[in-house]
From TrEMBL:
Source organism of this protein record: Paramuricea clavata (Red gorgonian)
Designated name of the protein: Uncharacterized protein
InterPro entries, per the entry: Tesmin/TSO1-like_CXC
Domain of life the protein comes from: Eukaryota
Amino acid sequence: MYFVTGNNAKSRIIDITKIARSLDNDIFDSLIGLHAFTGCDTTSEFYGKGKKKTWKLMVEKKMFDGFRQLGSCYFPSSETFQHLEKFVCALYGQNGISHVNEARYRLFKLGNFSDENLPPNKDCLYHHIRRVNYQTLIWKKSFDAVINSPDPAEHGWVINNDEIELKWMSIDAAPEELLQFVNCGCKTGCESNRCGCKRANLHCTELCKCENCNVKIAVLGSDSDDEEDMINSNHEDENLSDDE
């Protein structure tokens, strides 16, 4: 297989087969999934995280499994999701962490609020992986005469007015306390209306600097469990549809 690139005097022919044969098997099997995962015409990319950086991380840490498994079937397994979630944590400098919500929370507490510094939450990443898996499988079937692909609306996209759009999330981006970004610094507890959180009918969070507070909740808590339940439920439904 050859690839013609450039134009006029600068045109050249690249021997794709020769390059493929020179690659390690793990890298070769992971390339197509990595390309879709890092952004293409049909999938989104991670802001500020280019293909070169993700390629280097994958090779250096030998994190091939998730990318290699993409496109094996139309519904990515929970194992594939776990591998890729751990990779995203490492991509944002959170080595040793396996959950993007925890990585996102840690970075947020450090004051890294920009899109470039925060990974997607688990729900958003789940839909991204579904799109990536769908696209990778289509590419892997490119030599088939007919591809009977399922409705993309079941794989991370939505159909609005006959147009396909990305389905970014199924749940709120953050707990209500963070969305309204209310925090307090009460010195004598937070039970009176002098507390900004109480006036807003919100619980105090770990972002507050209040003292002697008995109504503070952890930001990384029930919402993460809700996402986990939602993802596991979706996997169960998809497995049932496969059996049918």
